[in-house]
Write a structure and sequence with these properties.
The protein is about 85% helix and about 0% strand. The chain has about 70 residues and is mainly α. The chain has helices spanning about 5, 10-35, 40-69. Helix 2 runs antiparallel to helix 3.
Length: about 70
């Protein structure tokens, strides 16, 4: 998912996707430790998407603080 699409979502949806991404990363890391995972591409994509979501959440938090002042 691209950053523009992520910015269009509300905070509750972002937190839901963040939780799903963390669960996916846990499963992928577990598969890697068991030697079942053939590629690391999915893990990398999930980490990048998680970072994008965290960035957008932080942007929204800072915007709310700025409006509050």
């Amino acid at each position: 998912m691209k950053a523009e699409q992520i910015r269009g979502l509300d905070t509750a949806d972002l937190k839901k996707q963040l939780a799903e991404g963390e669960e996916t990363m846990f499963r992928l890391r577990f598969q890697m430790s068991m030697g079942q995972m053939e590629g690391i591409k999915k893990l990398r994509e999930t980490k990048k998407e998680r970072a994008r979501i965290l960035t957008v959440l932080r942007e929204k938090e800072l915007a709310a603080q700025k409006e509050g002042k």
